[in-house]
Amino acid sequence: MFVIVNKKNNSIATEPSRRQSDNVYATAAAAKAGITRTIKHYTKAIEQVAEVVANGDAEYTAPMYNTFRDATDKELGRTHVADKANYRVMDYSEYKLIEPMVEKRNVMTGETFKESINTPYYMSASSETYWSA
Prior knowledge:
alpha+beta; 2 domains; two-stranded antiparallel ribbon; 15% strand
């Protein structure tokens, strides 16, 4: 099993066009294809917004504007996602050895704790969603 790793923060990268997948690939070639799909998706969004702006409309009227912002907005801190050099393919068992932990604050108790950088927001004790179920 293989995963695509974001070099900037060592988190598992999610393909923007496949947000519902588990982000684990059977082969290294499949993961590399995932990187290619990711780059094509962001490139398409950037081109689409450029076309809308060239036609005299506001950039936010482009259908893929949110994806464009993901790839270009410096305030979101994700300008690296449209760069192929930002990704690497790793064996999942090797990734588990280097998976980063981040410190968060429990919403209910206020205590700090560490969890995987890949923990979804709704599954983290730092979110109200976790406690309202």
